[in-house]
Design goal:
Organism: Massilia violaceinigra
Transmembrane segments: 28-45, 51-73
Radius of gyration: 21 Å
Structural class: alpha+beta
Protein name: YcxB-like C-terminal domain-containing protein
Shape: elongated
CATH architecture of the largest domain: Roll
Strand content: 25-35%
InterPro entries: YcxB-like_C
CATH superfamily of the largest domain: Pleckstrin-homology domain (PH domain)/Phosphotyrosine-binding domain (PTB)
Strand order of the largest sheet: 1-2-3-4
CATH class of the largest domain: Mainly Beta
Keywords: Membrane, Transmembrane, Transmembrane helix
Helix content: 40-55%
Number of domains: 2
Distance between the termini: 16 Å
Length: 166
Amino acid sequence: MMQVTVDITKRDVFLVSLAMIPRLKGNWIFMGVLALAIFVLVLVTRTPDNLYSLGVAAVAALGGALGGGLSALTINIATMLLKLDAGNPMLGRHHYALTDAGLERRAGKQDSMRPWAAIASVGRLSGYIVFRLQGNGIFVLPRRAFSSGEAFQAFWQRASALKTAA
């Protein structure tokens, strides 16, 4: 059984949130729908009379979608960080252990055992091991919680092997 104790901070939550933005399919779908809506709105309000006008409308739609998507993500991350305080169970000290049955987590009063079937994926994300749970929850283990890069790598490899074997 491999074990690690981590201390999750707001900085960890912020960095993982930023790193996950381009990796989540829902963000791209949102920006695509937003771009399409802006493009249709431009076409309805001002019918383009040539190819140049159509190109300008397409660029405006992409720019609007990018701006709208980034604004929404910024507001969501800022709201999340403002709601996280010292008493929040997401922050603070957590103890994780890898077992054949699943991932054990002890965090004060919130002890849990997640079977490998309840974990959607195990991945690495810019200095973190991320356990994505079914239902879009995540557990984050920062690299600094491990004694060395080799220990970090070994923990990730063992978790990946256990998830694959399950």
